[in-house]
Each structure stands twice: as structure tokens, then as C-alpha cells.
Amino acid sequence: EIALHYLSRVGLADRTDHFPANLSGGQKQRVNLARALAANPEIIICDEVTSALDTVVAAAILDLIADLRRRFNLSVLFISHDMHAIRAVCDDIVVMQQGRIVTQIAREDYAKPSSELYFERLKRAVPELRQGWLDEHQDVVKTGVTA
Fold this sequence. Notes:
alpha+beta, two-stranded parallel sheet, 7 helices
């Protein structure tokens, strides 16, 4: 009954008869979140929770984490190299390189230029989906040669 309670909190009440090998990656992450909630924590540590998931499933997990933060008044220490994921769930962002803090910013300041090269490289490493990008590069498409 307790397990069902926490599984329902993460959207898996209908999967109680499944073995771990029969769960998808996203479902396994939901089980891990349910297990963490069962301890009634004040903070949950999420270390690369979306790294092995496709983008649609990862987005659903990020939405779930944001929802759990609100519903249970949780703090989340979210560790990732994926700056898109970090922006989705974190209020404050701390960037570390080789074990030391190189910058610390609020989410709303993320887009502002930073003098920290490592942070700027992490931001640029996030793929950007822009409409019309192909039209901007028609000369490359036609000739196969970049300027």
C-alpha cells in the first residue's frame, strides 16, 4: 500500500506488477523518484537523471521533478552537463570545473553573457532548434562548401 502511494505520486500506479527489466528508462527514473519520496526528504539529489533518456521522456521527467518540488516543497540538487535540463528545474545554477566553482547565477540571468569561458562553452553545447536555420545556409546546401 505504501509503495502504491508513492508510485502513484510519480505516475506509475498502473505498473506495480512489472519487473524492473520490463520498465523503460523513464519509468525506472520514476521508480527512483518514488523511492526517494518514501523517505520524506527535504532534498533529493538527482545526478544525470536524464542523460540516458530520449528528449521526450527526459522532458517528462524534468516536468515531474518540477511538479514534485512544488507539491512536496522539496529542494533538488540537480547535477548535469545538460544546461537545458538545468534551466528547466533549477532556480540557482552553480557551474563547477575540476571540482571548483567557476560561476554561480540565478536562472533568470542564464542568457546574460558571462566572462567565464567554461560556462559559455556549456551554454553553446546545448543544441538550439531554430526555424529557418536551413534557409540561412542555402549556399552550403547547394554547393556543399562552407564560407
